Amino acid sequence: LNRRLEGLGTTVFAEMSALATATGSINLGQGFPDTDGPAEVLEAAVRAIREGRGNQYPPGPGIPELRHAVADHQRARYGLEFDPDREVLVTAGATEAIAAALLALLEPGDEVVALEPFYDSYAACVAMAGAKLVGVTLRPPEFALDLDALRDAVTDRTRLILLNTPHNPTGAVLTKDELAAVAELALERDLLVVTDEVYEHLVYEGEHVPLATLPGMRERTVTIGSHGKTFSFTGWKIGWVTGTPELVGAVRTVKQFLTYVSGGPFQYAAAEALRLPEAYYTALRAELKARRDLLAAGLEEAGFTVYRPRGTYFITTDVRPLGESDGVEFCRRLPERCGVVAIPAAVFYGDAEAGGGTPLVRFTFCKQPQVLAEAVDRLKAGL
Ligand code: PMP
Ligand code: GLN
């Protein structure tokens, strides 16, 4: 492994899911639903395979049907206009979109400002680009963006801000004021923004505002979405990027040499999924909100401090009321103590101690209610 990637051995998600399987634990670690998305979307994929659509290399930028559906989605929801031919790119999940965007837009030695804690692929991709990640720490209980810290994090070497809202792992949803501050800074310092909005539809209080809707931001923002999150098919790995022809073209150049294309038949299904009626999104939100409330209440009863998230399908907790101090240690022992797997938030920090992440532990609630209830019972009995 080259020096740029030192310390980035195995993702915590793979490690923790393997631990869950090996110990027969309930996996509230890695964020993936334990029931699949809508049957009609599944059928659309099967139909595409049977009918020979997408079984050979699809077009490089993605099939036109999906690019049009993404453009329609951005217009209908947010009033954002994108040309499906030049301003939309289909990727192998949001993961590839993040990697391709960072590799396309960063020079070695550049700095990237990102909200800390951050999704683990950010640090790896920034490192692969030879750039440096500078964290702006979100702190409990609100995990609000500290606007002074954000401003202080920008230097002459800063090339871009890597945003994530709704935010994994804290569940924070950036407010209009916070987004306005990001926009102001980006304009003032001439920065690009890559914004990871994969949880755009999973907001329970407040609303998701895409950064690209703010004045002057469409021109300098790469927005990332994920079919896996919105439609509960994380294994299909269909994501997308929207932005100006220059920005999307740059991402596309890199994408060509990472995967070239992927998921042909699933792209047809994703296009159909994006055309589901509003009732789908309303039901998804209502279902996940009920699960959030179930798990949050249960974790409180089990003794955790719970930071109830406004978005995503993750809850961040603090283990100190349980007499513990280290989330990594806590998560390592949790399978044998309780038969439950969770993720130590420390892995999402550059410096967990300095950022206050050491005692924090993340649980996902994208599981069936009876599974969440059983996990809560086990935690209450074992802790
Ligand atoms: N960004 C964030 C913040 C995520 O939580 C995830 C899913 N773990 C991804 C990107 C990756 O999404 P995908 O599965 O579409 O690659
Ligand atoms: N995004 C998911 C999470 O945060 C996992 C994705 C992955 O395993 N790479 O749990």
TrEMBL record:
UniProt keyword Glycosyltransferase present: no
Cofactor(s) required for function per UniProt: pyridoxal 5'-phosphate
Keywords, ordered alphabetically: Amino-acid biosynthesis, Aminotransferase, Cytoplasm, Pyridoxal phosphate, Transferase
GO terms of molecular function: kynurenine-oxoglutarate transaminase activity; pyridoxal phosphate binding; succinyldiaminopimelate transaminase activity
NCBIfam families: PRK07777.1 (NF005855)
Subunit structure: Homodimer.
Function: Involved in the lysine biosynthetic pathways. It catalyzes the transfer of an amino group from L-glutamate to N-succinyl-2-l-amino-6-oxoheptanedioate (N-succinyl-2-l-amino-6-ketopimelate) in a PLP-dependent reaction, yielding as products N-succinyl-l-2,6-diaminoheptanedioate (N-succinyl-diaminopimelate) and 2-oxoglutarate.
Listed name of the protein: Probable N-succinyldiaminopimelate aminotransferase DapC
Organism (species): Mangrovactinospora gilvigrisea
